[in-house]
Specification:
By secondary structure, the protein is mainly beta. It is built from 1 helix and 5 strands; from the N terminus they run E-E-E-E-H-E.
Length: about 100
């Protein structure tokens, strides 16, 4: 059973905006970048049987016209330092942004 140890609530993050990468046939049109979607993420780090889970979930948008499920995900790390580094690299969350869960 995992136990939350750190959290960040309502972290602003933008998904998308990536340009096309990869091969295209000669003369093919280059696809537009992926649409940018601004989200608020709730992020936690949980202690889990010999490691740490970095868990994130976007808050549902109250103005969302199409009822898409919110974005979410998790990754596992051997150490707390690795989980904190992943949160910094992927989401821009710095050490001082975290709150300890008691």
């Amino acid at each position: 059973m995992s136990a939350p140890i750190k959290k960040v609530k309502a972290w602003p993050f933008a998904f998308g905006g990536e340009g096309h990468s990869g091969w295209l046939p000669a003369g093919a049109a280059v696809p537009e970048p992926t649409p940018v979607e601004h989200e608020l993420l709730d992020v936690t780090i949980e202690s889990d049987e010999g490691g740490y889970l970095l868990i994130w979930a976007a808050r549902p948008s109250p103005t969302c016209e199409d009822l898409r499920p919110p974005k979410s995900g998790d990754t596992w790390y051997e150490t707390l330092e690795e989980a904190l580094a992943a949160a910094r690299n992927h989401f821009g969350i710095q050490h001082e942004d975290w709150s300890d869960v008691s």
